[in-house]
Specification:
- The protein is built from 11 helices and 19 strands.
- The protein is globular.
- The chain folds into 2 domains: 308 residues, L-arginine/glycine Amidinotransferase, Chain A (5-stranded Propeller), CATH 3.75.10; 80 residues, Orthogonal Bundle (Pentein), CATH 1.10.3930.
- The protein is 29% helix and 21% strand.
- It has 411 residues and is an alpha/beta fold.
- Strands 8-9-10-13-14 form a 5-stranded mixed β-sheet. A 3-stranded mixed β-sheet has the order 2-1-19. A 3-stranded mixed β-sheet has the order 5-6-7.
- It starts with 13 loop residues before the first strand and ends in a 6-residue tail after the last strand.
- The structure holds arginine.
- The site of arginine has 16 residues, from loops.
Length: 411
């Protein structure tokens, strides 16, 4: 069986990518809910969409198929039984049951599938529904002032995180924060019901496993090595679970996981905010994580009788050389390592590059120091606009979920 997902590196020429065009949800963030929504500001949707369209057009002009996940969701909801099941699960996960769920479903019936999907992303305002027998949960909300019965999904344009393609399959992720949990429910339904994927992929982890993991932490370095951040969003237990699955499932060819401990904070919530692979032997890295060569890195390998062997390392460059079989590597520091430019450009995702081919990346235009450095190191850099998109704390890699990349040459 040819898999509908083939991603065996971070850098192989990108052929197909899953994305989400920002909708009303990004303007449904308000100061009271911003923190809980994992935003630091409120983007202006009109400009954010222009910036996003510029990004997707650039990808298309480089031969990449851009697939919008919201379109796939619309496709599968055409079937009444899938629509009914999705709505019930969605509502149940938001604690609406019995007559309350029925009341909301009745409202959904009045919407076209397109508007239903927009509402799922944008959120459902309280005044739209008159509950016949409201429960306390239905009327009280989660904040003192809570205008939404179903919260918006402003982070949905960071399509990298709710799932992660890896080899011929993906992990469908148990997200850390409530604000992002519904996003991976959408992935689950799309993967289960869309003819493009149904029965044509391996699911390495599903979102019902009890350990947290997010795609920004999952980097496929080559067809047998994966790097995973131990971060605010990805727990050590989930890395071990994934290791068992990848090492024991005959459909997986991965035999090495590099678990990289990074600081647990909002600016660096995922490994890809501080580290990305941009060529066979070139990487961008935020110097703040290197800890003077005293990092906490563990290499996981399959042991005897389905056990896992751990080997501790402290140097990122040495570990990369070891697992990739390279004699030299080029680590380019965000903001060229300058004590002001580095943290500023890291904050605006200067380390978060999307490679569209080996040595060719897409990145935010505002990170001028990192861009100059990459160009000096021979990288082809395509700049995209970033005034509004960057306010959500994610860059070109975060906004894109590769589903097909061409294989890379073997070392
Ligand atoms: N892969 C990434 N770095 N994604 C960035 C996600 C940003 C988003 N606001 C969050 O906190 O979840």
């Amino acid at each position: 069986m040819k898999s509908a997902i083939e991603v065996n590196s971070e850098i192989g020429r990108l052929k197909s990518v899953l994305m989400h065009r920002p909708g009303k949800e990004i303007e449904n963030v308000i100061p009271d809910t911003m923190k809980q929504m994992l935003f630091d500001d409120i983007p202006f949707q009109k400009i954010a969409d222009k910036e996003h369209d510029y990004f997707t057009n650039l990808l298309r002009n480089h031969g990449v198929e851009v697939v919008y996940i919201e379109d796939l969701l619309e496709d599968i909801l055409q079937k009444d039984d899938v629509r009914d099941d999705f709505e019930s699960t969605y509502l149940n996960e938001h604690y609406y049951q019995g007559s309350s769920a029925e009341d909301i479903k009745q409202y959904f019936e009045t919407l076209s599938i397109h508007d239903l999907v927009s509402t799922i992303y944008a959120g459902l305002r309280r005044e739209k529904i008159h509950f016949t027998h409201p429960s306390l949960h239905d009327v009280a909300g989660t904040n003192a002032f809570d205008p939404f019965l179903l919260d918006p999904l402003p982070n949905a344009y960071f399509t990298r995180d709710p799932q992660a393609s890896m080899g011929s399959g993906l992990t469908i992720n148990h997200m850390t924060f409530e604000a992002r949990r519904p996003e991976s429910l959408i992935t689950e339904y799309v993967m289960k019901y869309h003819p493009r994927f149904a029965g044509k992929i391996n699911v390495w982890l599903d979102r019902y496993n009890d350990a947290r993991i997010e795609g920004g932490d999952e980097l496929v370095l080559n067809d047998h090595v994966v790097a995973i951040g131990c971060s605010q969003r990805t727990s050590t237990r989930s890395i071990e679970k994934l290791a068992h699955k990848l090492f024991e499932d005959p459909n997986s060819h991965f035999d090495t996981i590099v678990a990289v401990q990074i600081p647990h904070n909002h600016a660096m919530m995922h490994l890809d905010t501080v580290f990305t692979m941009v060529n066979y032997d070139q990487f961008t890295v935020y110097p703040g994580i290197m800890n003077g060569g005293k990092m906490n890195i563990n290499i996981l390998h399959p042991g005897k009788d389905n056990t896992i062997n751990l080997e501790h390392r402290t140097s990122l460059p040495d570990t990369l050389k070891e697992v990739l079989g390279l004699s030299e590597i080029d680590l380019m520091e965000t903001g060229n390592g300058d004590p002001v430019a580095a943290p500023r450009e890291q904050w605006n995702d200067g380390s978060n590059n999307l490679a569209i081919a080996p040595g060719e990346v897409v990145t935010y235009d505002r990170n001028t120091v990192t861009i100059d450095l990459m160009r000096k190191h021979g990288i082809t850099v395509h700049e995209i606009y970033s005034s509004e998109l960057s306010r959500g704390r994610g860059g070109a890699r975060c906004m894109s979920q590769p589903i097909i990349r061409e294989p890379i040459e073997k070392n």
